[in-house]
Structure prediction request, 354 residues.
Amino acid sequence: MRTIPSVLGEDQAAFLVRQRVARLATSDGMGKPHAVPVCFALARASIFIALDEKPKDVPVSRLKRVRNILQNPDVALIADRYTEDWNLLAFVMVRGRAELLDPGTEEHTAAVRLLRGKYHQYEAMRIEENPVIAIRPESAASWGALEEPETSGPRVLDTIHGRRSVRRYLQKGVPEDLVERVLEAARWAPSPHGRQPWRFAVLTKEATKERLARAMGEEWRANLEMDGQSMEIVEKRLEGSRRRLLDAPVLVLICLYLEDLDAYPDAERQRGETTMAVQSLGAAAQNALLTAYDSGLDAGWMCAPLFCPEKVVEALGLEPSLVPHALLTLGYADGDPPKRRSRKAIDELVVYRD
Ligand SMILES: Cc1cc2nc3c(=O)[nH]c(=O)nc-3n(C[C@H](O)[C@H](O)[C@H](O)COP(=O)(O)O)c2cc1C
Prediction:
């Protein structure tokens, strides 16, 4: 079933749902126009606009747009794309009648949920205490290149192509806000049932990194010896790994956290649940890696914690419910990584079945 107002064409709806801001035009009883930028959410047969806390000096009932709607419910909402490349200009305008939804009603609750789903900033605002504007669209008009311009694809693809694993860093500190940005990206990864089955430990102090390196080193030494490696090779590899941990300005340990997942009576479904959690940990890691690269940082991935999770938990004093899986190193690359990077051709990876 279509979840968008039926007066909108497919292209118009697709354009509108990707826009983060629109302009709401209202007019008073005398026909005097008034237009303001608004955040909005599109739903079955309606467009919702929150009355949030931004205008602190006026109660929401005194807002001009609210008073106008009470006097004259005819409104227009326009969302547009402007770029210097005028081939990409576009807009969609919706005309309709607006009403105010009172807090506590079913539709108001649904609208607040929708708006918070689109704008995470609303999670920290008490928008549920204010009325929500609901526009019931009656007609729609549009112009220009409604389809997504190609430039928004390649921007992401440029980051994907540019990112590479870095294993040697400059001794240049990483600003805290960049680390926070990387964690923020990880936080927004998709996850099974939205449970976010991962937690992050950020390590920056030399002594902490040393403790981690020692704990993982012991395990690795035992494994390398079991593989029959010579003492010389074992020592060389261990020192290399220790240096990698100590030289990276920031380490982010990504741990699996299974406590919030669904519980099933049968082992097979439970295994599926755990696999999904691990898949989503990979998504969180990739979000972090791409955002690091996009923010001018470099990053690398070390799998060592996966092979000695209890030792890592003990060395870092973490909750026993955490299962360390991946260690991301963050910093500024000490030169381009020497390793050749290549990928299999696309036709080796993909089959099409009509
Ligand atoms: C699950 C996983 C584990 C990895 N573990 C390590 C590791 O322990 N040490 C390492 O140097 N690189 C590790 N990597 C990085 C890969 O070697 C690297 O992504 C791959 O060689 C491709 O190179 P690129 O990232 O520069 O494109 C790991 C990557 C993934 C996805």
Residues 191 and 280 are 5 Å apart (CA to CA). The two ends are 24 Å apart (CA to CA).
